[in-house]
Amino acid sequence: MTGLCLFACMPALAAADGTTTDLSTFMIPLDPVGDPAHSATVQAAASGDSYPITVKQAKDAVRAFTGNPDMDLVLSGTGTMPVGSYYLFGVTNASSYYYVNQNSGVVEFALLAEMPLPLQKRFLMMTLEESDQIDAQVGELVEAWRHGDLKRLAELLSDEFGEFPDLYRRLTVDRNRAWIGPLVELLDDRDDYLVVVGALHLVGEDSVIDLLEQRGFDAVQQLIVTSDKALFTVMSRDGNITETYEKNLTKEQFTAIVNVFADNNFSSYGDRYDEGQNHITDVGWADISFIEGTRNKTVTTYNVNDYLPGGLIRIREKLQETAAYTRTPEETQLRQIAETWITRAPTYAYDGYGLTFVNATLPDPSALHTRLTYRFTSWNAGYGNRSGTMTASAITEHTIRVTIIDRDVDSAVIDDRWDEMGQFLIGSTVSLTYQPMQCEQTVWDTWEANSGRVYIRAPTEEEIIRHYYSAVYGIEVTNVTRIDSGLMTCQACSVCPQSYHVGLTVNASRMQALVDEGWKRS
Question: Residue 475's closest CA among 445, 505, 436?
């Protein structure tokens, strides 16, 4: 399961720049006999914002959030989610990506426009009249957020919606529910994700956190160490145990755990260490208990090492190491996973026999990372499924190394030259093709259109594609060609293909990024 960090993005004020969208489309008409000052207030507020945000504003937001004003960001795509569109930025020569939602304004004003006109006016005027209190209100919000005071945060954020329950539901609850599906998909992924949302979405009933808990993602982890074994369990919000791992401990392992408590004078610490909560929120708590005879000592710590005494950090790290060890499958389990995978993989399934275990190594115990080595024999030369191809009939010995991370096969390499998962010779190149669709802009065209570059001669599509993959992924692609199909095609948007496709060559070990964007092996 992936790690998913939900981060509350606090309100911020910023001057608009770049291209703006006329807000008159969303403005609420006041009565002809209404107070002219109100109309002036509405006009002034409208002229101070830009919806949707520009690419430059989105880049500035990412740089501000990451604390890196010089981050080299390139727009690698756009798309839509259930509640609006987004920009996708890549970091040059890195594997990091940032999604910036650009629905702000369009969604909110559209929802506002669906309210009865009298309520629209009341809500808008209340908001404008309280605009001079924004600094004090933001100060209160930040203070509650920094101290993890969810009750106060919920009160402050929802206070103004008391008269507008329908708008609150539309702005928060409905959007929260729309997000849950994509968030659950992220949780099913192996990668870790940071999701930044408005703070209002993380507090109260039917918040994102509440809805995830309702789906069983409110997990409590527990590690119990006795003189001969370690037991690690994961429990859901209703107290049911969803995962259990148990490992026997040697006398030396148990002694090392006990000694870290004694060496760092665990009994001298206070009952609670929560200074980190003043600086970082929503990272959870850990109760550390040491029981010996009639003596029982428990220390509650906020899960941020930066604000803990050094001795407690060392104790926590030893317990985390023990938990990782306990979750690591026994060698017999790992071998079963690896052998099932190998025998079903194309090379062995085609003509392999005599699978023999050689050894297992643990390069990174904290990552549940194990490498297993096997030998087997094939009746014919070559790799993969060789059906329909001419192969030399020669008995061939092979060595395969399989890497397992957290019970999943992560990589498999035969003879240090054949990638059995990707089905290619390591270091070789592969040919890929991409079929553009009617009315759809490719990711490289979107990237180029928003780059801000000015040319004496406009670049060709081949040049754009090469530059895009070099700048965004650090991948060199060659032999980029546009190939006309010569066939008639329909004109339906997003359904019918263009009358051409694009081909290129790339190092096989780097092709996954292109495959993820829709390229296919030729």
Answer: 505
Tens digits of per-residue pLDDT, 265-277? Answer: 999 998 888 765 5
pLDDT tens per residue across span 418-444: 999 999 999 999 999 999 988 888 888
320 within some domain: yes
225 and 312 both lie in a single domain: yes
Tell me the C-alpha distance between 506 and 424, whole Å.
12
The encoded tokens of residue 90 equal: 């890549």
Neighbour tally for 54: CB within 10 Å: 18
- The backbone torsions φ and ψ at residue 474, rounded to the nearest 5 degrees and listed phi first, read 70, 30
Q: Are residues 174 and 230 in the same domain?
A: no
Tell me which residue has tokens 């930025």: 89
**What is the pTM for the complete model shown?**
0.56
What's the full length of the chain, in residues?
A: 522
Long-range contacts of 444-447 (CB under 8 A, 24+ apart): 444/468, 444/469, 446/75, 446/76, 446/77, 446/78, 447/74, 447/75, 447/76, 447/77, 447/472
Query: How many whole angstroms separate alpha carbon 419 and alpha carbon 410?
Result: 11
Domain edge (last residue) among 327, 361, 390 = 327
Express the helix, strand and coil content of the chain in percent, nearest 5 each: 40, 25, 35
| pLDDT of the residue at 168 | 74
Q: For the sheet containing 424-425, what is the strand order?
A: 352-364, 369-378, 396-405, 408-414, 418-419, 424-425
Judgement on whether residues 370 and 281 belong to the same structural domain of the protein: no
Residue 240 amino acid letter: N
Type of residue found at 482? R
Report whether the peptide linkage leading into residue 309 is cis, meaning its omega lies within 30 degrees of zero.
no
Euclidean distance between the first and the last CA atom of the chain, given in angstroms as a whole number: 33
155 Cβ contact partners less than 8 Å away, ≥ 6 residues apart: none
User: Domain containing 382: what range?
Assistant: 331-422
